[in-house]
Amino acid sequence: MPNELLNNIDLDLASLEMTMKEEVSQRKETVLLLPESQKLSAINLIKYLTLRSVDIRVLQNNLHVMGLSSLASSEGHIHRQIQAIRERLGKNFKAKEFDPCDIKWSNSAVKNKTRLLFGQKETEDQPYIMVTFDSSFVNDYTFIKNLLLNGMNVARINCAHDDESVWENLILLIKKACTKTSKQCKIYMDLAGPKIRTDIINKGRKEGRVKVKEGDIIWLSESNEGFAKKDIVISPNESGIISKIKKGDRIFIDDGVIKGIAEFIKGDKVGIRLMRISSEKKQIKAEKGINFPDTELDVAPLTDFDKACLPFICENADIVGYSFVRNPSDIVLLDSIIKQTGKNKPYYVFKIETPQAVKNLPDILFEGMKHEVFGIMIARGDLAVEIGFERMGEIQEEILWICEAAHVPVIWATQVLENLNKSGLATRSEITDAGHAAQAECIMINKGPHTIKVLTTLKNILKRAAEHKVKKRFTFRPLNIARNFIQNKG
User: Fold this and answer.
1) DSSP label at residue 241
2) Which of 118, 147, 361, 398 is placed for a possible disulfide with 152 were both Cys, Cβ 3.0 to 4.6 Å?
3) Residue 304 and residue 160 share a domain
4) pTM, whole model, 2 decimals?
5) C-alpha–C-alpha distance, residues 408 and 76, integer Å
6) What does DSSP assign to residue 477?
7) DSSP result, 277-336
8) Which of these, 280, 275, 255, 266, lies nearest to 233 by C-alpha position?
9) Total of domains in the chain
10) What is the CATH number of the domain that holds 212?
């Protein structure tokens, strides 16, 4: 039985190797377009996506039974791991050429790219920590200095808020604190992106809010013409959205607190049946976010405001965060506009926050690889609403795996130790979440009255997590992201 099992394992691995090589050959033009420093990473990504496009759980179990590597935790050097297993099997296997992307090269590639993106830091075995700033920090140099002393490595300025004068003052204070403390801190500036938010244009307009209950019909429209005074009419504040909505599409308001289903399509008006309101105050307020997870929106990721901000960002920021990236063409657009500014180009971080971005992640990574260094942010706020909260754990894991295969640094963002930051007391679940975040290269925390406490708590959690970071054996069912990529030959 053991000999038969070993033969089957070797045959399965040989088949995987052959399929990987064929896939790389078919996509060689993609690799040739990349700088030398990214080519091995791109090839490894293609091989990993090939592996994850099929079900290898039986093979993994057989490997485990025989005391061999089950291929889990080998994302960054997947082909070399297969070759190493076949060597151990001793089935007259002699590789003509071992894959140069081995575990040592893989680890070095991720570390080097992470260091270029986020700078030097004192604790190499722990993730970087990014802290979100706002205008309240302008008059508090001491607080900014304490952030640096307590572990902040990256300062995040959200360009959706304040203006260039506030941003400039914040940057000056950060640089002053860096000089005084001899600490390094990168400046990360987030483009605001399109603001799809509620604008109450009929009943409740003056108050900026309107009462609702489950079962109500509300309307999405860009105009209040043709409605009665009692009708609740919401404008999404972006033209071209309503015409894209189909009957049965889900609509979420206020970070998913309110869920509705498109029930009536009447020309340029859409009737939404409210199915769930998960708050005590059953109301819709103005300026709350709206998500359309089932609707193929044609909204430009760069607004006129974003374009106007780019010269300042290029002059002052080390990293620019790109919101609502959905496909490679969005990256090409940003790159072309930045080149037109004639300014220095900051490193890019692409924020994954829509179902389209998840689906197109491999193509986004290959486009990103045309640059020496870039990063990916798992923007869990909008992403959870868009894909469904119940899928968030699964999807963030898949993004981490695929980015590891591409040797791309990842930022884990949104609501990390949020309750601790707001109230001073952490929940049990968010402590666990923070420990899980240690898989990423950088962790983002929001501002709050207890930010220093969050930093010290997070550092303690990360120190403990670093001691036993890899402790699970994952099984590789097919990933839809990988399967879609492999089946689409472009």
Assistant:
1) S
2) 147
3) yes
4) 0.91
5) 10
6) P
7) E-SSS-EEETT-BEE-TTS-----SS-HHHHHHHHHHHHH-SEEEETT--SHHHHHHHHH
8) 266
9) 3
10) 2.40.33.10
